[in-house]
């Protein structure tokens, strides 16, 4: 069963909730509370310099890449070229070329979609202001949780009706 299919698949509410919560999990700027504690000296990374400091940032961006790949695979169809009315398999004759070239195109499509969400995450870091802890808790418990539970109820009821 394919989760996605088009842009945001067939579950746009789940897509938005997952995107917001993955930004919060990666501690990007609207939700970067550990760095905001002592931001004059880089927060919890004060004791580290050199390669240890670089490894903290490398792990942060690796976490962002993994969450972008999850968004790509779960909601954007993964390696399927999901822009309608552009016949990419017929254009490159991928159906006839099974093997390494087809696999390379699939990996390139997946990484291009993941790069799109890396770009979106980095630009939200540049544009949105930082949230306080009470605003983050209100967003999570009073907004995202009820919306995601309602989306779960809507999805399960639509699946049960279609049986």
Q: How would you characterize the overall build of this protein?
A:
The chain is mainly α and 163 residues long. 65% of the residues lie in helices and 0% in strands. It is built from six helices and no strands. It has helices at 12-25, 33-36, 51-75, 88-92, 100-127, 133-162. Helix 1 (12-25) packs antiparallel against helix 3, helix 1 (12-25) packs antiparallel against helix 6 and helix 3 packs across helix 5 (100-127). The two termini are 15 Å apart.
Q: How much helix is in the residues?
A: 55-70%
Listing every helix as H and every strand as E from the N terminus to the C terminus, the arrangement reads HHHHHH
Biggest sheet layout: none
Q: What's the Cα radius of gyration?
A: 19 Å
Q: How many beta-strand runs?
A: 0
Model regions low in confidence, pLDDT < 50 over at least 5 residues:
1-9
- Shape type: flat
- Compute the number of helices: 6
Mean pLDDT: 78
Class per helix and strand makeup = mainly alpha
Percent of sequence in beta strands: under 5%
- Distance between termini? 15 Å
What is the oligomer described by this structure? single chain
């Amino acid at each position: 069963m394919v989760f996605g299919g088009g842009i945001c698949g067939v579950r746009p509410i789940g897509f938005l909730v997952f995107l917001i919560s993955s930004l919060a999990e990666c501690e990007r700027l609207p939700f970067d509370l550990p760095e905001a504690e002592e931001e004059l000296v880089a927060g919890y990374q004060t004791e580290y310099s050199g390669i240890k400091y670089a490894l903290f940032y490398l792990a942060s961006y690796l976490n962002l890449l993994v969450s972008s790949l999850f968004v790509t695979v779960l909601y954007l169809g993964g390696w399927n070229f999901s822009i309608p009315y552009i016949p990419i398999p017929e254009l490159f004759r991928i159906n006839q070329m099974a093997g390494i070239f087809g696999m390379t195109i699939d990996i390139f499509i997946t990484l291009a979609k993941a790069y799109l969400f890396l770009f979106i995450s980095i630009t939200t870091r540049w544009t949105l202001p930082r949230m306080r802890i009470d605003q983050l808790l209100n967003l999570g418990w009073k907004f995202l949780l009820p919306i995601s539970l309602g989306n779960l109820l809507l999805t399960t009821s639509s699946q049960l009706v279609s049986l």
